[in-house]
Amino acid sequence: MAKVLLIGDGARENALAEALGKSSKGYKVYALSTYTNPGIKEVVNNTGGKYYLGNILSPEEVRRVIKDTSPDFGVVGPEDPLFEGIANVFREEGIPVVGPDKEDAMIEKSKVWMRQLMWKYEIPGRLRFKAFNNLEEASKFILDFGGSIAIKPSEQVGGKGVKVVADLQAYLSEEKRNALSKGVDRIAGLVKDDVKLIIEEKVDGPEYTLHVLTDGYSYLPLPLAQDYKNAYEDGIGPETGGMGSISGPSWSLPFINEEEYSKSLDIVRLTAEAIKKETGKDYIGILSGQMMLTGLWGPTIIEYYSRLGDPEASAIIPRLEGDFGEILEMVATRHLSKAKINVTEKPSIVRAVAPLGYPLDKKMASGHKISLDLPKMREIGCKVYFGSVAIEGMSLVTKGSRALELVVIDEFNNASKRLDQCFSMISSDTKLIYRHDIGNSIDTQVEKAEIVRYTYKARERAGILGVSADWSPNGGLW
């Protein structure tokens, strides 16, 4: 019986653990987490594995668990362990693993590295950008600039710190633009590297994510998903790691056509090949394009993930027909060419449940008891993945982030009603954040995509796809 060691402790890892536990290969699932995740623990217990608690960012800790378990392969779920070289540790110990080495995970860790790579290898869907390590220069650029921009931390900080300045704001009074430029300090303060922030040309359109499995030889795309970042209803409030997601129907989304799906896959594949040229290492694991359909390019890269998105994974994995656990092993052992995967025709909706305080005040969101009628929720067709919630004694206690992810596979309207019904079966000693609107604005996004599609197709016919005017007032971005 093969053994697999899973690294991570969130809802994404709960979904991965479930897939591994259901595999016809009969895997024994072992896990290393920072706290006891109820969903992961259930799979570990059911498969006869063992649950380890420790620092998932520590190469020494992971090495110790590898030596103790002698797994046949590993799966690294979150991005931070990849940035710290945890996949490298598996390979140094001779264990195949799903997850790129830290050198390749730079595609997610550094937005500057990612943008430079795309321009160096002329990958379609790239945006113009300018990187700053001098905050005075960045502030001056914002003050002098007269067009639309997106200001971001230069490295991955969990979806926090993005600031968009749209055209209608571009010619604000000097006082207001001075106030805006002060926000640069706050964004830059999230970053540890010398390069503090990156300013990109702003684009607009419906967003979506394409996750692609690769063993360095073959590429296996998964169904598209869309993430909902903002904390509150109607897309307002601070950005989060994701308050919900949709996937489907079938392989795409209602607002992305087959040609756009294919072009998106080409972009991700070309990027994986460019990473190998740049680092000398095959990309083995999951490379995910966080994309937007824009009038500039059509499919356009906003950023990359070096792993499955969360909560996108909760929307995608339950829709996969076949043995996804075995496919993960094929990725790790570099036999992905043998993999076959199908997907259910019906779409899915995921809605996260988080304690009040998330995402701005982790302390406020931590330490609250939460309870749910899990058997009844499962009975009405609602899958529950446990996220930032731990078993402590006889209670479930929040750890400061999204506690639960609720999933229903059904037509969007039906799924929405059942999710609301499931949410009513959850109680806590604090107010819970939950977006009722996720999956309810599909028609609006279809209309938006049609407008964008008309624009980029016209540019394509004119031979100016991806060509944009210089947007610095002094003669060019570069």
Automatic annotation (TrEMBL):
Family annotation (Gene3D superfamilies): 3.40.50.20, ATP-grasp fold, A domain (3.30.1490.20), ATP-grasp fold, B domain (3.30.470.20), Phosphoribosylglycinamide synthetase, C-terminal domain (3.90.600.10)
Family, as annotated: Belongs to the GARS family.
Source organism: Stygiolobus caldivivus
Pfam families the UniProt entry points to: GARS_A, GARS_C, GARS_N
Name assigned to this protein: phosphoribosylamine--glycine ligase
Pathway: Purine metabolism; IMP biosynthesis via de novo pathway; N(1)-(5-phospho-D-ribosyl)glycinamide from 5-phospho-alpha-D-ribose 1-diphosphate: step 2/2
InterPro entries documented for this protein: ATP-grasp, ATP_grasp_subdomain_1, PreATP-grasp_dom_sf, PRibGlycinamid_synth_ATP-grasp, PRibGlycinamide_synth, PRibGlycinamide_synth_C-dom, PRibGlycinamide_synth_C_sf, PRibGlycinamide_synth_N
Presence of the UniProt keyword Signal in the record: no
UniProt GO molecular function: ATP binding; metal ion binding; phosphoribosylamine-glycine ligase activity
EC class: ligase
Matching SUPFAM superfamilies: Glutathione synthetase ATP-binding domain-like, PreATP-grasp domain, Rudiment single hybrid motif
Domain ATP-grasp positions: 115-333
EC number assigned by the record: 6.3.4.13
Source taxon at top rank: Archaea
GO biological process: 'de novo' IMP biosynthetic process; purine nucleobase biosynthetic process
Signal peptide: none
Keyword Ribonucleoprotein: no
